[in-house]
Amino acid sequence: MMAANARPGLPKFSRIWLIAMRDFMGYVKTWGFWLSFLFPIIGMGLGFMFSNSDFDFSPPRYETVIDQTGVHGEAIKSFYAAEQAEQKAEAVKALATLLPEAEREAFRAQVDAEGADAGFATLQTRYPGVADSMELPTASLIFIDPPASTLSELAPYLDGDRRLSVGDKTPKLNGAIIIRGTADNPDPQYWSKNFNNAPAERLINRYFRDITKRNYLEAGGLSAEGYDEAMRGRTRVDVFDPAELSGTTEDDAVAVSMLDRLPFFASIGLAFFLLMTIFAGAFMLLTSMIEEKMNKLLEMMLASTRFSEIMLGKMLGAAMLTLASLAPYIILVLGGLIGFLIFGNPEQVAAIREAFPVSTILISLIFLVLGYVFYAAILIALGALAQSMQDAQTLSLPIMLMMFMGIGVIMFGFNAPDSPIVTFASIFPLTSPFAMMIRLASDPPLWQVLLSITLLAICVVGTMWICARIFRFGVLSGSGVGAIKNWFNRVVLRKSA
């Protein structure tokens, strides 16, 4: 067994591939893998089915108003209708990004003048499929006439014992707005069994807050309409990237848009993809090592296979399994991106291509590979030392904590990619795979990127060498954490056994 592993020469890829396929197929044949693989496909199918059916996950709430002041009841309904019209108009104006930049302001002006429906019809003429991919906001509250005149008579409806009659439907009454007092001093109340999620309550608060604002402005000789018009015309700040100054003048610089922010969101997605890859592969690496060690399969494999080939094969198998399990999500993202690049707005397509140069994609792939190999080597070594699943969980806890630290770096780096902490984390090998991918969107200095890659590569090589020694020790001796402790006491602390 030792002679087979003492032969000189490089690891043979055929044996590495054989071990990788053995681990890969061992998990692919399980029910759990196919359930996780088919979950997004089943989810999309159910979503498509429900979207084309009459089933509604959030049906409108039927509300009624009993207004003893004679003033606020109808005003609340009109206030809600105005809110809905404004939300609908804003949603349509947000679709102006589908149009060329020269037409966007005219389109927004059309929506303000003619309404959301006219603007949406314009988009349907230019882009017929927009209606299928975009749903405009619909009213979540439907106000009906009170089925009773007093609160005590409304109680059976609010409890659900009696149903309403609205056309051919018999919905239940979700809530009742009761306004007592006088017009100048109202006492609003909201009655509902579902008081944790009460959009009608929030509507009433917004309505009376607007009343308070109007009264305050009118006391100073101002109108709420004038205030709203002034706010619409207020000075707004434009955000610019200093990179715009290269090759152009200050007056020709273009403000930062949502497309300019897209690389930051993509970098977060890549960093989380690396985390998911490590998390998904960690369980496979640990469990396969423990099972094969306990069943003496590793000793049999060592009769014809080197330690390095086993390690590389298992790492490759875990990577293949992770990519296979995430394949539906990867295909969805790539399919959507390719479809957008082919059929999308030419201006937006050009902006996306400029935002994601080939160099950035290649550097991201380098960090993905190096980060995965770094953590996978550590997990394999820990699996070789573990004698049971309890040992594996205890040994893997520090690695999991480091990866959770990576999550913190990702979130912090998104808000402050230029902070000294993130800069240090992008160079420090334990966190550089996550932090540097976040910083790539803000175009860090090239020397920092090269230094980070170099340090991470050196750390990966060193980790592989150390983990290979630990792997060899754990497999051949059959020892676990106790042997490491005894060695530390004997060699480092000079204690007798």
Question: How do the helices and strands line up, and which of them pair or pack?
Answer:
Elements (H helix, E strand, L loop, with lengths): L1 H5 L6 H16 L2 H21 L9 E7 L4 H23 L6 H14 L1 H11 L3 H4 L7 E4 L6 H9 L15 E7 L4 E6 L7 H21 L4 H9 L25 H37 L2 H5 L5 H19 L1 H17 L2 H10 L2 H28 L3 H27 L4 H8 L4 H8 L6 H32 L3 H12 L5
Parallel strand pairs: 1-2, 1-3
Antiparallel strand pairs: 3-4
Explain this structure.
With 497 residues, this protein is mostly helical. It folds into two domains: 61-223, no CATH class; 259-492, no CATH class. It is built from 21 helices and four strands. It has helices spanning 2-6, 13-28, 31-51, 72-94, 101-114, 116-126, 130-133, 151-159, 199-219, 224-232, 258-294, 297-301, 307-325, 327-343, 346-355, 358-385, 389-415, 420-427, 432-439, 446-477, 481-492; strands at residues 61-67, 141-144, 175-181, 186-191. A four-stranded mixed β-sheet has the order 2-1-3-4, sandwiched between helices. A hairpin with a 4-residue loop joins β3 (175-181) and β4 (186-191). The radius of gyration is 32 Å and the shape is elongated. The two termini are 30 Å apart. Mean pLDDT is 77; it is low at 1-8.
